[in-house]
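queue> holo job accepted (pyridoxal-5'-phosphate)
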Amino acid sequence: MSIKANIQAIEEIKARHAEISGRASEDVLLLAVTKLHGADEINEAIECGITDIGENKVQEIIDKYEKLKPVRIHLIGHLQTNKVKYIIDKVHMIHSVDSLRLAQEINKRAEQHDLDMNILIQVNVAHDENKFGIDKDELEQLLGDISSTCPRLKVKGLMSIVPYAEDLEEVRPYFQMAKKLFDQIKEKEIKGVDFQFLSMGMSNDFTVAIEEGSNIIRVGTAIFGERDYR
Ligand SMILES: *Cc1c(COP(=O)(O)O)cnc(C)c1O
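queue> job finished
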């Protein structure tokens, strides 16, 4: 299948599952995950209507940046503090903030560039030892600390990666946990914290993620095919 056909198919599925959760398809952003794919493929996706792409490595953003048609770039992978400076003026949102140290570095670099940066806090709702992200019990403390020390950060919501499962009912509870956490924080009205986005769901499980309230799905394989890790 072509990139165009894949995107169309995903849009249809997205619309159906958004409807199940009482929302419109436009309320859920399809973030095309472009890691390990070249600028030509990415530009093809942009021509098919993709407005936002996700990369998980700083180096890939730097390599592709000049070759891409206009698009918003999201950093979705783990970010080392010493690399923030390379992407601060290139990305629209950072989904993977999971420590005060990283938040403060982003804030510092944003200040130097006189810009505000959108961030999501990555939470590890499944307590998966192999995944980055903070524990849900640490979330409020982190938000409070960011709020009081990082005026350049706009905390827009949460991001979660859940374990892979064939049976999607196994991951549904994790998505529900993330949504509950999202709603709880939203009610609290913490200064500088304006929860709008819940980034969860990938190629294999985005249907269930949407049903449970995700409004940014991060989809790579279903658009571009299998990645070549060689
Ligand atoms: C690679 C990646 C995705 C997309 O995974 P697919 O299974 O290819 O859709 C989503 N989120 C993150 C953080 C990723 O690294």
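queue> The CA atoms of residues 147 and 192 lie 6 Å apart.
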